[in-house]
Specification:
Layout lengths: L8 E6 L3 H16 L3 E2 L8 E6 L4 H20 L4 E6 H6 L2 H5 L5 E3 L7 H11 L3 E3 L20 E5 L1 E2 L10 H5 L3 E2 L2 H13 L4 E5 L19 H9 L6 E5 L8 H9 L6 E3 L7 H6 L6 H14 L4 E8 L6 H14 L3 E6 L17 H17 L7 H6 L12 H7 L3 H7 L4 H13 L3 H14 L6 H14 L3 H14 L6 H14 L3 H14 L4 H8 L7 E8 L2 H13 L4 E6 L5 E9 L2 H13 L5 E3 L1
Parallel strand pairs: 1-2, 1-3, 3-4, 4-5, 5-6, 7-10, 10-11, 12-13, 13-14
Antiparallel strand pairs: 8-9, 15-17, 15-18, 16-17
Length: 616
């Protein structure tokens, strides 16, 4: 047991999927059980752990960039311990020590229960520790009592994957599929229910191939029977699950989703491509015809069921014709949401042996085409359109009326003409007026809804709209006060995370970058699963630090050449992509918390003959 007075603080930064978030909770609980404390930021931590993702190269690059930033901190504090855990640790192994002398401990997913003892060993020996045992061995389940959210919980039902999709590194870093014992899952959920948890998310790389180990020889307990047992647990009100694989999705599963009252009527069913040629090359195990048949049966059995998906653009040898088939199929199916990824080759996978034949610029073009096409259908990608970009209430997903659809298409006059006199109609009208910079009119409508409309379900979204009017008028201090009311009056609202983000933006506008970062940290700590927290992770919080821009290019190769030239001069240069089409590759130097440090860097670059711009 660590001495409570001398207890060291641990900060865990999580990258990647829900499985990683649950693993981070388990690791945090292990350290708490040993007397450690959790740090709110890496600046106050004695131990920093990066729980990592290897699904895309971009995810690995972000981790390596964050490790690099710690170099100066470790020079000031040589006793700081830095560890890399999770998928990237399993993938890189010893190479992580070679890539960065900042890293002290590398620990794979199967060994994470050993972390407190590994830290203790390192503190005594000061020698690098590598712990990446056989990922295919049965994993020891550690159920720590620590949970980020007290009302909802992730429950892992299986580890690893046997599908071996040709682009996917998961089987190589998470191992072959191993299902947990059914009785252990049920007991865990019963304990959670006793603690007040009402919402359960079942996790696995492929949940609907779940089979209880002791029943495997008889064909397995099966995911459906597991759902039936969980549905009978008192106290649990909602059951969700992800991710499903189309080759294992069945009518029996759809019927169970319909008949089990606690199961949320939502299915995440990754499509990946609308071309049979590409699906075969991906080793997905189904055809376009099979996928369409599944969707049709799902919608017949569960009318109104929410359907979301994943798609990959730029897979090797994906022609423009293949891509157009994906666009056509997504347009036909009309998903409620989609996650779009640009293909990047992953080591050890079958597709890594293929030539990455689609140019980076073409991948970006296809990505933007698909995003714009989906937006034009009033579909929400990553909740950007409905929540982040326009602020429509979440319940508008399932039954958007003509006014809301017109609004999402940018047809404001048509939207206004179709707005009814309900609270929902007035809310939309105010949003349109605010977007057209008719701020006072928008404010009056928002205020009237809050004072007179009996539909309380609208009030949190309306409070956000009211705060947005102050932001639009650049009255940032007043806006901060209004955004805070969302936290104070509507705890648990889906807009709480967005309110934190908006408060951070207000402080940024006021030039109070330190306060802005405080709210970014609160956002990532209190709402780690929110879109806003994910956005901050994707941007590496770059919106709330200073950097110096030295160029912008339409071609990635030109930006890369400048970055390499600057790095050769010892400068921390990197490429920041502007999310637009055509894409702009911006070359920036440094991520500074203090404006004064950024100005010093700016002056240095100007002396070297570069034209510069201070960002933000």
């Amino acid at each position: 047991m660590v001495n409570k007075v001398m207890a060291k603080k641990v900060f865990i930064r999580t990258f990647g999927c829900q499985m990683n978030i649950r693993d981070s909770e388990i690791v945090a609980g292990l350290f708490l059980d040993k007397g450690y404390r959790l740090a709110k930021s890496q600046d106050e931590a004695d131990i920093i752990l990066f729980n990592t993702c290897s699904v895309r190269k971009h995810a690995e690059d972000r981790v390596l960039g964050n490790i690099g930033i710690l170099r100066k901190l470790k020079e000031k504090r040589p006793d700081l311990v830095v560890g890399v855990i999770g998928c990237m640790a399993q993938h890189f192994k010893q190479k992580l020590f070679e890539v960065s002398n900042v890293v002290d401990i590398v620990c794979g997913p199967s060994d994470e229960e050993k972390l407190p003892s590994l830290i203790g060993k390192f503190l005594k020996t000061k020698k690098n520790i590598l712990s990446v045992e056989n990922i295919n061995k049965p994993r020891k389940e550690v159920l720590s009592g620590y949970r980020e959210n007290k009302d909802s919980a992730y429950v892992v039902i299986s580890h690893g994957c046997d599908n071996f999709c040709s682009y996917c590194i998961v089987p190589y870093v998470r191992g072959r599929e191993i299902s947990r014992k059914e009785k252990d899952i049920i007991n865990e959920i019963k304990k959670l229910a006793a603690q007040g948890v009402k919402d359960i998310m079942l996790l696995g790389q492929n949940v609907n191939s779940y089979k209880d180990r002791k029943d495997r020889s008889r064909g397995g307990l099966g995911f459906i029977r597991l759902l039936e047992k969980i549905n009978r647990i008192d106290g649990i009100e909602r059951i969700r699950f992800m991710t499903s694989h189309p080759k294992d999705a069945t009518e029996d599963l759809f019927c169970a989703m319909r008949d089990l009252d606690k199961v949320v009527k939502h299915l995440h069913l990754p499509l990946q491509s609308g071309s049979d040629k590409i699906l075969k090359a991906m080793n997905r195990g189904y055809t376009v015809k099979k996928y369409i048949s599944l969707v049709n049966r799902l919608r017949e059995i569960i009318p109104g069921c929410r359907l979301t998906t994943d798609a990959i653009v730029g897979f090797p040898h994906e022609t423009k014709k293949d891509f157009s088939k994906t666009c056509s199929l997504m347009k036909k199916i009309r998903f409620d949401a989609a996650y779009i990824f640009k293909y990047s080759p992953r080591p050890k996978t079958a597709s890594s042996k293929l030539k990455d034949s689609v140019a980076k610029e073409e991948k970006e073009r296809r990505n933007q085409v698909l995003l714009k096409m989906i937006k034009s259908q009033a579909i929400c990608i990553l909740f950007v359109v409905c929540i982040f970009g326009f602020g429509l209430p979440q319940y508008a997903f399932a039954d958007m009326d003509q006014a809301e659809i017109a609004f999402l298409k940018g047809e404001h006059d048509l939207a206004l003409a179709n707005c009814d006199a309900s609270g929902r109609g007035n809310y939309l009208k105010a949003r349109i007026l605010l977007k057209e910079n008719k701020i006072q009119q928008a404010y009056d409508i928002f205020e009237n809804i809050l004072q007179n409309d009996s539909d309380k379900a609208l009030h949190d979204a309306t409070q956000l709209g009211l705060a947005d009017t102050f932001f639009a008028e650049e009255r940032y201090d007043d806006a901060i006060g209004e955004y805070r009311k969302i936290q104070e009056k509507y705890a648990g609202s889906p807009f709480c995370a967005l309110a934190f983000y908006k408060i951070a933006k207000c402080y940024r506008k006021l030039g109070q970058m330190e306060q802005a970062r405080v709210y970014v940290q609160k956002l990532q700590q209190d709402y780690p699963l929110s879109f806003e927290a994910k956005l901050m992770d994707e941007l590496d919080n770059s919106e709330f630090v200073y950097s110096v821009q030295v160029g912008g290019f339409s071609k990635y190769a030109n930006a890369e050449n400048l970055v390499n030239k600057l790095k050769g001069k010892g400068l921390d240069a990197y490429i920041s992509e502007k999310e637009a089409f055509p894409v702009v590759y911006r070359v920036r130097v440094g991520k500074f918390k203090a404006k004064s440090d950024a100005l010093v860097c700016k002056a240095l670059l100007e002396k070297k003959g570069y034209k510069t711009k201070l960002c933000p």
